[in-house]
Amino acid sequence: MLIRADNLAKHYPVTTGFFGNKVAATVRAVDGVSFTIERGETLALVGESGCGKSTTGRLLTRLVEPTAGTVRFDNIEMSELGREELRATRRRMQLVFQDAGSSFNPRMTVGALIAEPMHLAGAPAAACKARVQELLPLVGLSAEHAERYPHEFSGGQRQRIGIARALALRPDFVVCDEPVSALDVSVQAQVINLLTRLQREFGLTYLFISHDLRVVRHVADRVAVMYLGRIVEIADKATLYKSPQHPYTKALLSAVPAHRPGAVRTRTEVVGEVASARNVPSGCRYHPRCPYAMEICKTQDPELYDLGGSHRSACHLVNATH
Ligand code: SF4
Fold first, then answer.
1. 97-132 as b/e, with b when 16 or more CB fall inside 10 Å?
2. Domain locations in the chain?
3. Number of H helices, E strands in the chain
4. CB-ligand 1 contact for 10 (6 Å cutoff)
5. Residue 210 Cα, ligand 1 centroid: separation in angstroms?
6. CA proximity to 153, closest of 136, 166, 132, 169
7. Relative to the CA of 294, which ligand 1 atom is closest?
8. Which atom of ligand 1 is the closest one to the Cα of 248?
């Protein structure tokens, strides 16, 4: 196991008053999630915008300090690390963002952008240059691209540059945060194939964050579905797509185009508005939208019930029928 998150939470106070010193509300961006990621595995984290997926990725890499809970990385408890140890551990964890190009300094060449993390880590200039020349062909670009600027590249190519930059320090773990959401479908497939090949070649472990279960189907080993800061269902990919148990997972899957030509998918009704992480409903937080909600759902928060194998689902209905 490479990653272990236990009861991880991130709450943000919403302040008011002249000095901003009154806490008016709390945004429960991530509200107690626990999961593991095995070495070489891809765990997909799926859910609607604002459900806490990206914050979870940042909590794992310690870009965001947790309000509660712990993260163990390669058997190292992250909160116990001193500043230097934390910096060294963070080099083993990298991020690939949705639109890598938007975070690039337009005045830096592609070579300088890819080399930047190595420079910051104190690597000599010659070693940085050699590594850039090694990385560009690995991500499907050519060595001469090092002298060009990011605006000269397409969205898909900029994403390849972002991947090369993320791999510069030879990480073990990469958080891919909606890495193909801004790309055309044909380019999405190319970038996904690239990520898959690099994972095989270098034994990488991925947390793949996406709102799109269609995309996740191509990359994930296991899938965790998040709703309002909690994981509501987690299973290996085959089980989750074939036998989803949580009503929210079923609703998300019903919106995905059928996998086989001619196959018909039955739509599951989702009612009501997406609730706010500032005002989390009592009981099961999905109950205002759930077509199967019962009285118990309004008051009792369901735990993640074990359904056998790696399959778990947080629903009273599931508990009653298993
Ligand atoms: Fe729906 Fe109740 Fe299950 Fe929540 S616990 S998903 S409200 S049936």
1. bbbbbeebeeeebbbbbbbbbbeeeebeeeebeebb
2. 3-92+171-321, 104-170
3. 11, 12
4. no
5. 23
6. 136
7. 2
8. 6
* SS3 label, residue 61: coil
Instruction: Describe the strand order of the beta sheet including 305-306 as a list of residue ranges.
Output: 93-96, 173-177, 205-210, 42-46, 222-227, 230-236, 312-313, 305-306
pLDDT digits (tens, 9 = 90+) for 1-34: 999 999 999 999 988 877 777 888 899 999 999 9
Instruction: Give residue 38 CA to ligand 1 midpoint distance, Å.
Output: 29
Q: Give tens-digit pLDDT for 101-125.
A: 788 999 999 999 999 999 999 999 9
Average of per-residue pLDDT across 77-92: 94
Asked if residue 288 has its Cβ within 6 Å of ligand 1, the reply is no
In this structure, which CATH number among 3.10.180.10, 3.40.190.10, 3.40.50.300, 3.40.640.10 belongs to the domain 3-92+171-321?
A: 3.40.50.300
Tracing tokens 């909606």 back to the chain, one arrives at 178
CA of 11 from ligand 1 middle (Å) equals 24
Task: Measure the CA–CA gap between 233 and 201, rounded to whole angstroms.
Answer: 30
Q: In terms of pTM, does the model score above 0.85?
A: yes
